[in-house]
Structures are given as structure tokens and as C-alpha cells.
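I hope you will forgive my troubling you with a question about protein structure. I set the record out below, with my sincere thanks for your time.
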Amino acid sequence: MQKRKLGQTIIRQRELFFMIIPVMVYVFIFSYLPLKGWAMAFQQYRPQRDVQQWVGFDQFTFLFKDAAFFRVMRNTLGMSTINLVLGFTTAIFLALMINEIRRKNFKRIVQTISYMPHFLSWVIAAALISDFLSSRGILNTILVNLGIVETPIIFLADKNAFWWIFGWGNVWKSVGWNTIIYLAAITSIDPELYESAELDGAGRFARMWHITLPGIKSTILVLIIMNMGWILNAGFEVQMLLGNDLTIDTSETIDLFVIRYGINLRNYSLATAMGMFKTVTSIILLTAANFASKRFAKESLV
């Protein structure tokens, strides 16, 4: 009976299945076929060799005994956590504020301005951030003129400030773009709920707290679950562009570690082992987040 229902569903929705075939082929070619390269993680891989030497878990043992590995893990988790918290809170807050704007023209202007940084490359964005934080930049000029500091602060030379520079830089660049999903979710809320709440004397903030936020709760939880799978992907562009020798202790991430000690030194086995570790850990985190959300909030991806 189940097979018959599945067959009937496929026939009834055959257009949709035909539409996803190119996507399935794309994912198979670029996401599944390369998995055979994971064998390099268990080899002492050398491109010039016809037969590779198998070394078992030696690459993983080397990683877990290396102090630099735990340092880049700390940096990656720290920056990803800051980015996750700031990204969600600021995007939700901005979506709530934009939704409360009554003048449509002004609303469009605000949305357009907030979206624009998303379309800048990180090269341009990093240059703007660097100018903003430089000793003669806008921030230092304001701090000195207000008497908060006596001399300009060299922010990009402070290793303790790098994580927050990364986090707020990502917020500036992507907060407007991240509000799109929340604004779309807000439009699906029944307007009669707002009308009823207003008749009962609820103000704007009360309506946001008791209607808007609960109305987009499922969207927030699903996005959090999905982003948990990217917690080890703090990237390398910002770190490479804004980092320097003075901040390398807090700016080097897993991806930079792979580039410098894996690819640049042609230790492809080590780079593959690190990539394999990231993938397996991300799957575990994604599964755990999905289970926790399903257990406690009754919302999940599957």
C-alpha cells in the first residue's frame, strides 16, 4: 500500500521530480563523488607516487596531539559562536523594526541600505572595516574627540579584539540579507491576531513579543539547526584579510590551518584529515541540534 501511494505521488508530482533531477546530479558530482578522496586521510599521500602508503589514523593522531590544532579549534568555535549569536539577534531585531515601519517608501529605503553590504566582496568589505578601525579612522576620531581615549587605539593589532571585529564585521555585511527570511515569515502571520491584540490594548512591543516572535519561532529554530552544521566553518577570507602576525594567535581558523600547513606544504593527507574531521563533527552537531529542538521545542528539520 505504501509503495502504491509513493508511486501515485511520484506520478502526480512528476514535474517537480523532473525539476530536481539537475540539482541531484549537481550534488552527486560535486558533493558525493569527491568523498572518495577521503582515502588520502589514511595515507601518506604523494602525487608523484603510483601506489600510496597507507598509514591508518596517523594523520588524526598527529592532529589531536598538536597544540596548534586545539588553538585553531578554539578560534573557530569562538568566532562561529559570536557570529551565530550576533547574526541571529541582530537579524531578528532588524526584521521586527522594519516590519513596524508604516511608510512604504521609507521601508524600502531602509531595506535597500541594509542589503547593500551583502553584495560587496570581502576584499572591499575588509578594506572598509580596516579604514574604519584605523588610527585615523572614524571610530578612533569619535573616541578621541569625545575624550573617551587619549590616543587612538590600534584595533587590528589587538588579538583580544579580533573575534569581535570578525563578529560585528559579519553583522554589518549580512544582517540586512538575513532579515529577508524573517520578514517573509512575518508576512505569513494572520493580521487578525494583531487587530485583536490592538483592541485588547496591546501596544507595539507587546504585539511583537506575544504575536510576531511566537509566529516566527519555527523559522528561527530551523535556521539555528541548519547553522549548527556550519559552526566549524568560520571561513578564512576575513581572517586572511584582517589578520596579521600580531593577531595570528586568535585569528587563525581551521580553514587557514588547512591552507598553511596542509595545502601550502603539500601535506594533502593532513588537509584531508582535517576536512574529514570538520564534516563528521558538523554532522554530529547538526543531528544533536535537530534532536534537541525536536525534543524540547517540537520543531525539527526531519
